[in-house]
Amino acid sequence: MVCNLTKENTQNILKIKNEIDNIVPKLREYYNLDMQIFHNFLQAMKLPKNDESQKNLRNQKMQDLLKDSCNLLIKLIKINIKLVKIGKKIYETGNKSAISDVLVAQNLFEANIRSCADLMAGNAFYIKDENFLKIIDNYLKY
Predict the structure, then answer these.
(1) Which of 50, 100, 105, 117 has a C-alpha 20 to 30 A away from that of 137?
(2) CATH label of the domain that carries residue 109
(3) Which is nearest to 54 in space by CA: 68, 69, 46?
(4) CA–CA separation, 80 and 86 (whole Å)
(5) pLDDT digits (tens, 9 = 90+) for 1-48
(6) How many domains, in total, are found in the chain?
(7) Exposure b/e, 39-70, CB count within 10 A at least 16 = b
């Protein structure tokens, strides 16, 4: 909205709008992927566990899906960091009468980063792959 209201710095604002326009489809893609991962996880939880072979298959599928979820959360953290940076550019060049919208958006992006980290921490509790846990550890600090 701030970009649409800004009449000055049109070159910078157009560049910023293009950056945002490139991010929005990724967010939609990740939203759909998140739903698919969650659906697959629920299906994996329903797999039979009558013998060791079935238990191992079920556990492996669940482990893989927990990792898939963490990898998606990492992508979301990175996109939200990018959006925070874009927000700073808008704050510097955007229409000052609508700048509070930028501040609200910044708060939402930062909250989303923390939420993704919290979700990842919840997943990490169940992940048994120590090497993977080392990889995601940096993202758990947000």
Answers:
(1) 105
(2) 1.20.120.680
(3) 46
(4) 10
(5) 666 666 776 788 789 889 999 999 999 999 999 999 999 999 999 999
(6) 1
(7) ebbeebeeeeeeeeeeeeebeebbbebbbbbb
